[in-house]
Amino acid sequence: MARWINLRPTRRTAVPLAMLPFVLVLLLYTAGSHVRKAENPNDKLLPSLTELTAAVERVALTPDRRSGRYLLWSDTAASLRRLVLGVVIAAAIGLSLGLAIGLLPVVRATMAPFVAAVSLIPPLAILPVLFIVFGLGEVAKVVLVVVGIAPFLVRDLAQRTAELPQEQLVKAQTLGAGSWLVVWRVALPQIAPRLISAVRLALGPAWLFLISSEAIAATAGLGYRIFLVRRYLAMDVILPYVIWITLLAFLLDLALRLASRRLFPWAQATESGL
Fold it and tell me: Which spans in 40-70 are helix H?
């Protein structure tokens, strides 16, 4: 008798199985919308697929009357600019401090407790402080993303660096390598794949911090638009924006995964399925 634990989907069945939950959610939503519309044609909570399509056409394909911009695309450009800049800065901080803390005992003794303490601060709790210090412009939003994910990246990469086999470090020094050469030739090539994996894990929180900052103070952005139209209960706009954010997050994650496979194929054996 075949056991469920031993059943593995084939390539032919993997795609239908992956699509099944999405199809079920769509069917449930369509049914729920139909029921609510039958009771109240003006119901806004679950707009019909036709209303969703019309809203997408309005924000993505029709210029705004006031600004002349295509709202969805201008909001996307503003949010992606803030997100990418924040993630890149956080990744640079995470890589540099992670390598230093993981390799240098003096830096570990000095910085590890501080990073651990900073990582416990809820980033959203200091959002008002960031707006006071940096103003309501772009800087505060980018800084929130950096503050939100950089401590996680530092701690993760420091731990991975500390787990490197000591034999490698000893052999490199025996062959005459100095501290910088050990970092460049021994530690960095092994930590770089983990950096991409850590950034992938941090993208979810990064989106959360970005949307939160845009909801409070912004004139453009995906989070700004969602919280702007919520006062009108415009679910026909909110739902497409949420789906669009999810798709963008998926595409960014996919791009990082493909980059990792292309740049570090040797590391994929230990990260299969991620």
Answer: 49-60
